[in-house]
Amino acid sequence: MTRNEFLELLARAKTERLLSSEAEKLFGAAKGKQYSLTLDFISYSSAFGRQIHSDYDNGYKFECATADDLQVVVLFQEKCKEFVDQLRGQTSREILLEVLGYDSLYQKPILGYLVKEFTDQVLTPGPAPAPIPEPIPEPIPEPIPGPDMDTLANSEPHHWTKGSNRIGKHWASGNLQPILDEIQEAHHPPADSKSWGGIRTFVLGALFVMFLIAGAIFFSDFEAKSETARPLTATLTDTRRQQITSRAFDFDFRAAEKSFESGQYAIARWQTLSALDHINFRYSGLSGQENKRLNYRAHNLLGRIYDRVGENYESYRSFHQAKKFYYRQGRIKADPKSPEARSLEEFIDKQLLKLKDQGMGSLIDESKRTLNPVNKKWLDSVIRTAADDSQLTTGPKPLTLVLVQTKEPYSGWVKTFHKTGSIKELTHYAQGQRHGHYRSWKIDGTVASIATYDKGRKTGLNPTFGEIGHADSNSIPMYKNGRLLEAKPPARN
Asked: How many domains does the chain have?
């Protein structure tokens, strides 16, 4: 079984939710195979007692995920403790693993870290350690607080014209032995060397010792002064920043939850985005773990807000972000059966089904349960296959379209053109009514507006793009069932 076949097996076990007996049989075929995999190391614990293989008894167990969010358990031997500590919180680390079996209780494959690779890493000389730098805050990931309007707008002009069928363009260690040999010779001259050589060696040694003593005195004094002048202030500053950031986040987030529960979805969105701005500020003072925890809460709420107003594309993106932050929290065990994890998966599945119904099924990667971005390549492919407005006419009901020949309500994509022949509108219909994605272009090919419809009524976000071709993500109008929602938040007291 090749590496790609093994990864396909992981994806199948996740998507098809195989029975334990089926999964054990399938992974039994891969047992003993060795693969080099790139993993995210989410959380670890001590593996007390007997394990699936005696080599890993009383060792360590890591909950990991592949780049495609496929969950695996990796066992480490007891002697790998220091290496295990180094892996905590690492992402995109490639290691060599052996397939040990399948855990039917947690429905995850069990892999073992090969000791040979560990031995090689320990025995291979590395570079001399660098000076210890000043402590810096843990880097904070930059989540997507709201819709990426620049991506959605795809400001590159479209050049579709009526009748056109074109798709737009688009460690090395140095060898120290010679130096060591020279030093050895300098400190141990040949037995027949003259007394002058011994005197010279003594004088040089004395000078060297004096130099070391003077340097030690100087640097100790410097370090003492710097330690009394800097760390306390810096620590207090960081602590104060964290306190201010946490209070600001809680203020806006609690207000957002209250607005959400009262049906003020546009206001709840604005307040949630404000909360995200606080915690993702470069000098927020938050630790990496605290930032991930708060990001999980905020993106989860954003996903629910978009779900309520029928903005399924942005709802999926928010829940997907929440899922990433949830599993990257060091204190959270990556258990897909937990209530939080199951809730996220249910919401994600819901949005994907809705998007299929809205004509955006071609964006969905079924094997990975992921959604590709709306880009020019995808839009061009839809425009190419969409029905021309000349094939349709107005139906008996207001704002409905039927086929000219059959008079049957139309379902699918429809395109219209400017008088110059350039693309003007692209709309998805279901049973004669606007249902799903809508987009319009200016005569020069740049995007004019984007909207979503639900059975003929505008819903979700409705960004418009002015002369500069940019929409402010914080002030985008939001609709629900054809009604514009109040977006002005209440004033702070």
From this structure: 3
| 247-262 per-position pLDDT tens digit | 889 999 999 999 999 9
Residue 56 predicted with pLDDT over 80: yes
Are 40 and 83 found together in one domain? Answer: yes
Q: In whole angstroms, how far apart are CA 477 and each of 246, 256, 356?
A: 29, 17, 24
Per-residue pLDDT tens over the stretch 193-230: 444 555 666 667 777 767 776 666 555 454 444 443 44
Owner of token pair 């890591």: 62
Measured CA to CA, the distance from residue 204 to residue 211 in angstroms comes to 11
Point out the domain boundary residue: 123, 145, 171.
123
Q: Give a yes or no: residue 312 inside a domain.
A: yes
Cα–Cα distance measured from residue 279 to residue 431, given in angstroms and rounded to the nearest whole number: 45
Q: What is the pLDDT of residue 320?
A: 93
Query: Is residue 346 domain-shared with residue 260, that is, in the same domain?
Result: yes
Q: Which of 310, 341, 364 is the last residue of a domain?
A: 364
Burial class (CB in 10 A: 0-12, 13-18, 19+), 347: buried
Angle at 452 between CA 451 and CA 457, to 5 degrees: 110
Could you tell me which residue, 383 or 183, shows the higher pLDDT? 383
How far is Cα of residue 367 from the mean position of the Cα atoms in its chain? Answer: 18
**Is 164 within the bounds of a domain?**
no
Q: Is 99 in the same domain as 27?
A: yes
For residue 341, the model assigns a pLDDT of 86
**Buried/exposed code over 14-36 (b: 16+ C-beta within 10 A; e: otherwise):** beeebeeeebbebbeebeeeebe
Q: Which two tokens stand for residue 387?
A: 């029905």
Give the Cα-Cα-Cα angle 224, 228, 233 (nearest 5 degrees): 150
407 in the same domain as 322: no
Same domain, 358 and 380: no
In a shared domain, residues 350 and 437: no
**C-alpha 368: how far from chain center:** 14
Does any domain span residue 35?
A: yes
399, pLDDT greater than 70: yes
Which residue range(s) make up the domain with 300? 249-364
Q: Sorting pLDDT into bands at 50, 70 and 90, what band is 185? A: very low
Residue 133 inside a domain? The answer is no
For residues 225 and 48, which has the higher predicted lDDT (pLDDT)? 48
What CATH number does residue 29 fall under? 2.40.50.140
